[in-house]
Amino acid sequence: MTNIASVVLNRFTKRNSAVLGLLLLAALTANAQQATVDITASHLANSISPLRAMGAGIDRDPLNSTATIYGATDVGQMLSGGWGAISYRLNTELSVQAWHWNPTGTWSDAANQRGYFVGSAAPGSIQRSYGYNLPLRGVSSNQGSSGGYSRLDDNDTTTYWKSDPYLSSVYTGESDSLHSQWVVVDLGGKMAVNAIKLNWANPYAVSYQVQYWTGADAFNDPAHGAWVTFSTGNITNGSGGTVTLKLASSTTQAEFIRVLMSSSSGTCDTHGSADQRNCLGYAINEIYVGKFNSQNQFVDYMHHKADSTQTLTYCSSVDSWHDSTDIATDDGEQPGFDLVYPSGLTRGLPMTIPVAMLYDNPDNAAAEISYLEKQGYAIKYVELGEEPDGQFVLPEDDAALYIQWANAIHAVDPNIQLAGPVFQGVNSDIPAWPDAQGNTSWFTRFLNYLNSHGHLGDLNVMTFEHYPFNPCSIAWSNLYLEPGLVTGIMQIWRNDGLPSTVPMEITETNLAYDQSVKYMQPFAALWNADFVGTFLTAGGQAAYYYQDEPIPMYQGCGGWGTFGMFVPDNNYNVKQDAAQYFSAQMLTQQWAQPVDQTHNIYPASSNIKDSKGNVLVTVYAIQRPDGQWSVLLVNKDQNTAHNLSVTFNDQAGSGNHYFNGSVTQISFGSANYTWHPAGANGYASPDGPATTSSQGSGQNVTYTLPKSSITVLRGAIK
To answer: Residue 653: what pLDDT?
Structure first.
C-alpha cells in the first residue's frame, strides 16, 4: 500500500486533491475484504417462501419406532429446527419391494392372499406401513438394500425371475420390441465365453439376443461400450424349456453377458391365467453362462446360491407379484399417513408424497391419492417412484411407467401435480447404454419419450437427490466444491432438455449416501448453509434436508454419525443437538423469517479467497418481508477469522448502499460447537447455541466472521 500511495502523491499536486482522494481510497480498498450484494431489481435471483422452500425429509424407520418419533416430544424437537414443508421418502423402492402404504387392501388372488395388492381407499387410520419382498426378483443382494437375492441363479429351478407386466404392449400400447426386457450376468471379471444355458419359465421369450459388453463396466460406465450379439446369439424361434446355446465357434473374453428379450410367448406363469398379468413379459428359472470345453461339454462359470455369494445378476424390471408372507418387517416400517399428517410436523403445509412405481401397480397409486384426499390431507407433489437410475432402469421403461401412473392418478384427480424422475444424488449427467441413435443421456431420453407421447406436461417439477461427497473420504476442501457441484448439476438437467418452465426441487439431500463423522462436526453445518444458499440463489424451488427424524448414530465407512439434526438414544429420545440443527435454525429463523411470505433473493459474493483461488467466504442475500436485508456468510477458513465490509450495489442508478442503524449479527461455528468422537458414545461440547450481538453500520464498518462459521448479518439499508 505504501508504494502505491507514494506513486500517487508524486503525480498529483494539491489542486488534484479530490482526484487524489479517490485514487487513494481505491488503492486502500483494492485488497480490502468485502462482500457485495447486487440489489439491482432486474437481477433478482429467486423469490421464495421459506416454509415451502426449505423443508425436510422423512423416511422408513426402525421397526416399532414411529410411535415414539411422531409423539409430541420428538415432533417438537424436529419443529424447533425450523424446517418447513415435508418430503416423504420411499425406501421400499430402493429395496426392490412393493409398498403397502395401507396395510388394509385387496389382493388380485383374494382366496390365497397373493398377487397384486391395492390398498384400501376407504377412510381409516394408518399408523405405519410396510414393504414386501418380491419373490420374482432377478436382482442380486447388492443391487437394492433389502438383502434379498436373485432367483436367476439361486440353484432352484422351481423359482424364477419375471419382468414387469406393465412394460408389455398390453399396457404401453406399443410394440414389445420398444421395451425389450433383459437380464445381465456379471462374471466378476473377463472370462472366455461362448455358451449359455437358459432354463425358461413361462412366459418365455420367442425372440431374444445373447450379447456381450465391449466396454470396461456395463453398469458403472454404461456410456463407453456397446452390446454386441454373439455370432449365433440371435434367436427368433424360441420355444421355452431348457436350451443350451453355443454362441460362437470361438470364445470371447467378456465379463457382462446380456439376454435381451423382445417378443413374448404370452404363456402364463405358475399363478395361472385368471389374471392376464401372469401371462405378460418374460420369466427365467435359472441362467448359466460359460463355454464348451474341448470335449464339447458345457462348463458353467456361475456360482448358484440362494444368498449374497451368488454370481451377480441384474434385470430390467421385476414383477410386483407377491403374497402376504413376504412382509419385510426386518427392514423396518414406513410412518403411516395418519400418523404423520396429524402430528403437526407438516405445519399444515402440503406434503410431497411418493407412490411406488418401479415395483408396484398403478391401481395402488390411484387408491393412495384417493385415500389422502378423502382424509383431507394436502398434497404438494406426487413423486413417481424413486431413484430409477440407481435401479438401472432404462429411461424409456421408466417413462412408460410414468405415463401409466400419471393417467391412473389423474383419473382420480386431474389437478394433482406430478414429480420425477427422482434421481439419486449425482454430480454429473446420468449415462445409459447407447440407444439406436447413440444417445447416452438418461434424462434426455426420458424427456424425449414423455414429449413424443404427449406427456411432457405431466412432469410438473423435476426432482432429484443431492449427496455430493464420498462418505469414506470427505475432506475439508470438499466445502469449496459445493457451490459448483449443485449449480453444475442444475445446468446439466437444463442442458439435457428440461424446459425452463419446469422448476427443480431437491427432495432429499445431505453430505453423502453413508455415514461419516463429518456429519457430527461443524463441517456439516457449514455445508448445509452453503448448499441451501447456493441452490436457492440458483433458482431452485425447494430443498429438503434429510432427515428430520431422530435416528441413532451408526458406523459407516466414514465413521460414526447420523443423518439428522439430533443425537438420540436407542429409544429415539433426543440427547443432544447435532451440528446441522444449528445450521437449520440459522437458515430458517435467522437468515429468513419463519413465515409463509415472499422473500426475494439477490446475487452476492465476496472477494475472500485462499492462495489457490478457493472462495473462502460465500455470501447469500435475502430481502425479507419485514423490510430487513439479511446476509448469510459462510466462512470456510478453518484457521482464520475474516473482517469484511458489506456493500449493497444497485447498478440501475442508485449506486452503493450500506447497513443503516443497528445490525444484528448471529454467528455459529467451531467456537460454539465441538464434536468429541467416541464411537457410539460421541458427544458435542460445547453444544451451541449461536452467538448473537449488535453491531454498527455504515460504509466503513467491518464485521468479523469467526473461523469455520456461519454468520447472518441483518438490518435495514440506506
So the answer is: 86
Residues comprising the chain, all counted? 718
Residue 342's pLDDT is 98
Whether residue 708 lies inside any domain: the answer is yes
% of the chain exceeding 90 in pLDDT? 94
In a domain, 376, yes or no: yes
605 DSSP β-pair partners: 36
* pLDDT under 70: residue ranges of the chain: 1-31, 141-147
- My answer on whether 466 and 615 are in the same domain is no
Task: For residue 621, give the CATH number of its domain.
Answer: 2.60.40.1180
Give pLDDT, residue 146.
53
- 377/498 same-domain check: yes
Domain match, 610 and 703 both? yes
CA angle (19 as vertex; 13, 25 as ends), nearest 5: 115
pLDDT at 142: 54
Quote the CA–CA distance of 49 and 55 in Å, as a whole number: 11
Angle of the 17-29 helix axis to the 2-11 helix axis, nearest 10:
160
Give the whole-angstrom CA distance, residue 348 versus residue 352. Answer: 13
How far CA 197 is from CA of 233, 287, 292, 297, 564, in Å, comes to 12, 6, 11, 12, 49
Domain extent at residue 614: 33-44+599-717
Confirm whether 136 is domain-assigned.
Answer: no
List, in sequence order, every residue forming a beta bridge with 599; answer none if it has no partner. 48
pTM of the model: 0.94
Is 141 contained in some domain? no
